[in-house]
UniProtKB/TrEMBL annotation:
InterPro entries: Aminoacid_DH-like_N_sf, Glu/Leu/Phe/Val/Trp_DH, Glu/Leu/Phe/Val/Trp_DH_C, Glu/Leu/Phe/Val/Trp_DH_dimer, Glu_DH, Glu_Leu_Phe_Val_DH, NAD(P)-bd_dom_sf, NAD_bind_Glu_DH. SUPFAM superfamilies: Aminoacid dehydrogenase-like, N-terminal domain, NAD(P)-binding Rossmann-fold domains. One of its GO terms (molecular function) is nucleotide binding. It comes from the Bacteria. This is Glutamate dehydrogenase. Substrate binds at residues 95, 116, 119, 170, 383. Belongs to the Glu/Leu/Phe/Val dehydrogenases family.
Amino acid sequence: MSNEKALNYVNDVYEIVKERNPNEEEFQQAVKEILDSLVPVFEKEPSYIDHAILERMIEPERIISFRVPWVDDSGKVHVNRGFRVQFNSAIGPYKGGLRFHPSVNASIVKFLGFEQIFKNSLTGQPIGGGKGGSDFEPKGKSDNEIMRFCQSFMSELSKHIGPDTDVPAGDIGVGAREIGYLFGQYKKMRGGYEAGVLTGKKPDFGGSLARTEATGYGTVYFVQEMLKGKQDDLNGKTVVVSGSGNVSTYAIEKATELGATVVACSDSNGYIYDKEGINLDTVKRLKEVERKRIKAYTEEHPNAEYHEGFENIWTIPCDIALPCATQNELNAESAQTLVKNGVKAVAEGANMPSTLDAINVFQTNDVLFGPAKAANAGGVAVSALEMAQNSSRIAWKFEEVDAKLQEIMKDIYNNSVKAAEDYGKPGNLVVGANIAGFLKVANAMVDQGVI
Ligand code: NAP
């Protein structure tokens, strides 16, 4: 098929997405990124068009939306909205995290669920794509309020998930504490011990060692592979990491361990800049134990600077930038500033943190760019390893899981590089990751018939 015909087909599918999902900007953006990458696939293999693979992929298999009522500590009743989007089960049970953040809506869960299909495929593990969450704000809530919310949320969600059907995990606002409460309620609702229904559990009750670290570590392993391709490494590099949550914390830890100096991190209020290198013990205590704002860092480290507003973190000169907070946190202007300041590599720890224009700036300036689907796939990959441990009722050592994670990140990098070369876009890891992820799911869908 000619390039023009393939392009027209992809554009027609994008028009369907816009028409059927009006006002869902994030979902449209995530679909656009994938569709643009797939043009060379349809040129080479037009039979996917006969099977309407794209038209089927852009439509979730199922979307569940539900009421989540809960009572706060003063006795007041609140109502939030819960979601689970079960996007694609061609290669395994739906798998993807739960996000608790006031910004959560249908567009956000659909963009995350759609991306998850391709990311999960890239890991080489047998997991389909899904995502969920609620517009609940966990910040400022007591432990009891979080528990009551999680119990109400799971009372409904438990009807739709299971170790062989749909396996949620954490995401923004959902860490080990929330997973514990969700798991407890699932067990009570279902009356059996199905350890594999959620991943990201504490190791005491079936969690995998190294799952907490996996996304952040995996992102840095991916950077290591990108640098290796240029006969370079992390030693002596200056790194900026946005966010200060789960992904950021362990990206900072691994980058530091590999000889880099991480000079900045942030939260949704602002960022800290510590030229001597971030003290991660302080960040971990402030965020994981005391649940304070990142601003409090400067009280203990007076040489560090605090700046209000998180966007300007990208004005700090660095060799490597790791956006690890949230979607669209890095725009074209920030990308241009990073390029001007000599950035060598960017890897997305967060999901869709760079706008399409920002990605374009990096690619046209020969900055090594690791897209989210590839760079942050380590978390869900280790979640799949947690499922494997749960179903075989054994627990692997930390080093064993970490070694598997490193292998998986290496494979994801190599497969993305190869797919980019095979389809005429050498060096373009966005195209490579999207195509490598797409092919496996598309072939499974063809083999399983029109369902
Ligand atoms: P987390 O532990 O809740 O941390 C999120 C961090 O990002 C916090 O520092 C938060 O600051 C900041 N943040 C959240 N919303 C923001 C906003 N609108 N503007 C600026 N900063 C914001 O979440 P996480 O698990 O690290 O997830 C971070 C990103 O990684 C997300 O895009 C997620 O989808 C992606 N991801 C996570 C995993 C995983 O295994 N956890 C796996 C793959 C991808 P505040 O505390 O001020 O809100």
